[in-house]
Structures are given as structure tokens and as C-alpha cells.
């Protein structure tokens, strides 16, 4: 039976393990954390958002970024300190502007397909992840931004998404908890929200029931790639224990660290870590629970998204180009708290948990899925801000790519 090693136990690694185990492969998942979904798949904005499939490669994004560079609390922040990785990535990002339309439509179609696979997984395995299927409402505060949104909406509709404009009054009717007005909005009733961490942990448990092995606290120092089987050199328990594991194939699902592993395997994948922040506001009293919205929101001006996750209100946003820095900075968290207080003043913010994670961004904003240069090397990575939204679909693409190159066993898991 072919042995497949998956590097990374976040949402892409675990959905990949699930898809491959369904085809009957012997799968082992490696992660440097003690549990699945402890890094970028821990506390994101929660949106399963085909409505957010517009790629960022546009002149408008560049202009906004330049305006925001000197604001510490800006939605997009770029550390100007020179880094070849950062500036080469930005150059490739700008070179992708001509592909903005095609990539937005392709991402929309992928997101719609992913939704079906994710809901099927959750139902088949009985995973509770605070799912809310109430749609996503994008709100705009001025006529110019609302007009620009119509142009982007045409691309989302071309990708097959049911999304339509609403007036300020209609937006308030969709989510009565909103305490501030807006110029107008766009509503996507088919979008949803859920807790990525709870889903990934639940799916990892389902994978284990299927015979998938998880190796945690495992730092992969090197992958010997002269010939198959591949040999993984692993440090465990803080480096006190060293192990060598063999695999017939490698699948890289390591988020922002995927660039490093690709180099070990003879490939070049330009993934940059773009930091995002979130806060989880604990709704500890009845007034706060009643004041928090159930419909997911995206405030276009602030670039802030929200999700209702049971007794928590998740508020997330910002994009920070600052390398692998994982500091949680107060001036980046405070705008999320201030936004919550402004728009939902009756929510108590006495218990707020901040978090940050590194989105694995490719220059064209499209995930890298499929084989590498060497036989038996595959990738499912680079999903950027849409890992939660796209991973259930890219896992299926990855599984078919593996099966085409490495014949699957004759029998798969039957439950």
C-alpha cells in the first residue's frame, strides 16, 4: 500500500488526509504543534465566503495600500524594511493584475464547489463546528465604494454566485442587530460561517478512525530526496529525540512554511506570510448574546469580517506584510475592539481574546495544488485568506492528482 506523508495538520492538511484516506492510501500527517489546527487554522474570521473570492491583484488595491502605509492602524500594513522575499513577491503580485478577472471567477467557482464538499464531510462525520448558514452581508458606507462593488459583483456572479445588492433598510432587515447605518450592501444567502478549529479537530478525529496516523511535536529538519522512498529527518520533544520516517509520496500542506519544504524537494513556490488578526469576544451575559449579530458581516471600508460562533463573537481583519513576525500588537488589535464597540455598543468587551496567524499567500492569490517536479511530490497550499473557504475542494483536486500518479489501492474506507 502506498505510504503518503502529509506535512501540516491545518485545514488543508487534514482535508487532504481525509480525501486520500477515502481512496485507501496509508496516510501519516506530521505537524510541529501538539494538536491539529493550532496555527493559521486556529482562530480566523470564520467565514466560508464565496462572496470574498475577489483576488487582491488590482490597481485599486495598490493605491489603497500606498495610502495606508503611514497609518499604524490601517487595514493593510507593509513593513518597508527591505526583504528580497517580500519585494520579489510584491513584484510578482503586481504582474498578476491582468489576471484579476479570470482568477476571481475561477476562485468563485472553486469556493462554491468547496462548500458542498465541506458540508458533506461535516454531515458524514457528525462534526459540530458552530455552523451558521445565514449568509454573508457586505456593507458599504459611501456611494463610490458601493459603485465599485457592483463591478466586482459582476465577476462573482459570472462564477455562479447568487449575490445581490440591498438597500440600507434591507441590510438592517437582514441583520437587525446592526446599530449603525450604511449606504448599501451586497448579500450572499448561500455563504456560511463556522469555527475552523473545531471543524479541523473533528475531521482529524474522523481521519484517525479511518486509520490515518498523526505525528505531532514533529519538526522536519530535512527530506532526503535522492530516490524513493523519501526519508524525513524529524526532531521531536524539543530536539531531544530524532527519528527517520519513510514515505512513498510527500504532500506539502504547511501553510506559510511550504516555501521552505518546496526548496527541500526541488521546487520553487513563492508563498509569503501575510499576518491577520482576530479577536474572540466572549458573550458572557444575555444582553451581549442578544446584541451580537447572527448574520456574518464584512465592512468594506474597515476590511473587517465577523462571525457568530456559539457564545463567541469573532471579529477579524487586517493584512500585515512583516515576514514571519508573530507578535500580537496592541495597535493592530485595538481597531477590532473599537469597531465592535462602535457598531454593537451593547456587546460587553470585558473578555476579549486576541490572536494572529500567517496567511500563506501566492502572488496570484490562487492555491498551488498538484504535483511537483519530482515523482511522488505534491502540494496543496497557498490558499491565502481563503483556506477555510477553499480547502474542501482543493483536497479533492489533490487526491485525484495523487491517484493519477500513484495508483490507489483497490479498496477504500467504507465506514
Question: What can you tell me about this protein's structure?
Answer:
InterPro entries: FAD-dep_OxRdtase, FAD/NAD-bd_sf. Residues 3-400 form the FAD dependent oxidoreductase domain. Keywords: Oxidoreductase. The chain is α/β, with parallel strands linked by helices. The chain has one domain (3-361, 369-405): FAD/NAD(P)-binding domain, CATH 3.50.50.60. The chain contains eleven helices and 20 strands. The strands form four sheets. Strands 4, 5, 6, 7, 14, 15, 16, 17 and 18 form a nine-stranded mixed beta sheet that branches. Strands 9-2-1-13-20-19 form a six-stranded mixed beta sheet, sandwiched between helices. Strand 10 and strand 11 form a beta hairpin. It is globular.
Task: Please describe the structure with a list of short key phrases separated by commas or semicolons.
6-stranded mixed sheet, FAD/NAD(P)-binding domain, 9-stranded mixed sheet, 34% helix, alpha/beta, globular, 415 residues, FAD/NAD-bd_sf
Any chance you could write out the topology, listing elements then pairs?
Elements lengths: L2 E5 L3 H12 L3 E5 L16 E2 L10 H10 L7 E3 L5 H12 L4 H26 L10 E5 L2 H16 L5 E4 H7 L9 E5 L3 E2 L2 H14 L3 E3 L2 E7 L5 E7 L4 E7 L1 E4 L5 H7 L7 E11 L3 H6 L4 E4 L4 E6 L2 E10 L8 H14 L8 E10 L6 E4 L5 E5 L5 H19 L10
Parallel strand pairs: 1-2, 1-13, 2-9, 4-17, 5-15, 13-20
Antiparallel strand pairs: 3-8, 5-7, 6-7, 10-11, 11-12, 14-17, 14-18, 15-16, 16-17, 19-20
Helix pairs in contact: 1-7, 1-11, 4-5, 4-11
Protein name: D-amino acid dehydrogenase
InterPro entries: FAD-dep_OxRdtase, FAD/NAD-bd_sf
Keywords: Oxidoreductase
Amino acid at each position: 500500500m502506498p505510504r503518503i506523508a502529509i506535512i501540516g495538520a491545518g485545514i488543508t492538511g487534514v482535508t487532504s488526509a481525509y480525501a486520500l484516506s477515502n481512496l485507501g492510501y496509508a496516510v501519516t500527517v506530521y505537524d510541529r504543534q501538539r494538536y491539529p489546527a493550532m496555527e493559521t487554522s486556529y482562530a480566523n474570521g470564520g467565514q466560508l465566503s464565496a462572496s470574498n473570492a475577489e483576488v487582491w491583484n488590482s490597481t485599486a488595491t495598490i493605491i489603497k495600500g500606498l495610502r495606508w502605509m503611514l497609518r499604524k492602524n490601517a487595514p493593510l500594513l507593509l513593513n518597508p524594511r527591505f526583504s528580497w522575499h517580500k519585494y520579489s513577491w510584491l513584484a510578482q503580485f503586481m504582474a498578476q493584475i491582468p489576471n484579476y478577472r479570470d482568477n476571481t471567477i475561477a476562485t468563485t467557482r472553486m469556493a462554491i464547489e468547496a462548500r458542498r464538499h465541506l458540508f458533506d464531510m461535516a454531515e458524514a462525520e457528525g462534526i459540530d463546528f458552530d455552523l451558521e448558514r445565514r449568509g454573508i452581508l457586505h456593507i458599504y458606507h459611501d456611494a463610490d465604494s458601493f459603485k465599485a462593488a457592483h463591478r466586482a459583483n459582476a465577476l462573482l456572479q459570472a462564477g455562479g454566485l447568487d449575490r445581490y445588492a440591498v438597500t440600507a433598510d434591507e441590510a438592517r432587515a437582514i441583520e437587525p442587530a446592526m446599530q449603525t447605518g450604511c449606504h448599501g450592501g451586497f448579500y450572499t444567502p448561500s455563504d456560511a460561517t463556522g469555527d475552523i478549529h473545531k471543524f479541523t479537530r473533528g475531521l482529524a478525529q474522523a481521519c484517525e478512525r479511518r486509520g490515518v496516523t498523526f505525528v505531532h511535536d514533529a519538526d522536519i529538519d530535512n527530506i532526503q530526496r535522492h530516490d524513493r522512498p523519501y526519508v524525513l529527518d524529524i526532531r521531536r520533544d524539543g530536539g531531544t529525540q530524532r527519528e527517520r520516517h519513510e514515505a512513498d509520496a510527500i504532500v506539502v500542506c504547511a501553510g506559510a512554511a511550504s516555501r521552505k519544504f518546496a526548496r527541500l524537494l526541488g521546487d520553487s513556490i513563492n508563498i509569503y506570510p501575510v499576518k491577520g488578526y482576530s479577536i474572540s469576544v466572549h458573550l458572557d451575559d444575555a444582553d451581549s448574546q442578544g446584541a451580537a449579530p447572527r448574520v456574518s458581516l464584512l465592512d468594506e471600508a474597515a476590511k473587517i469580517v465577523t462571525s457568530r460562533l456559539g457564545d463567541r463573537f469573532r471579529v477579524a481583519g487586517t493584512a500585515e506584510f512583516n515576514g514571519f513576525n508573530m507578535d500580537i500588537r496592541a495597535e493592530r488589535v485595538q481597531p477590532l475592539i473599537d469597531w465592535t464597540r462602535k457598531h454593537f455598543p451593547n456587546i460587553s468587551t470585558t473578555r476579549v481574546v486576541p490572536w494572529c496567524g500567517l496567511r500563506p499567500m501566492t502572488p496570484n492569490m490562487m492555491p498551488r495544488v498538484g504535483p511537483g517536479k519530482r515523482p511522488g511530490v505534491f502540494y496543496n497550499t497557498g490558499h491565502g485568506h481563503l483556506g477555510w473557504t477553499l480547502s474542501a475542494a482543493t483536497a479533492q483536486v489533490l487526491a485525484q492528482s495523487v491517484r493519477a500518479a500513484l495508483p490507489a489501492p483497490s479498496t477504500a474506507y467504507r465506514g
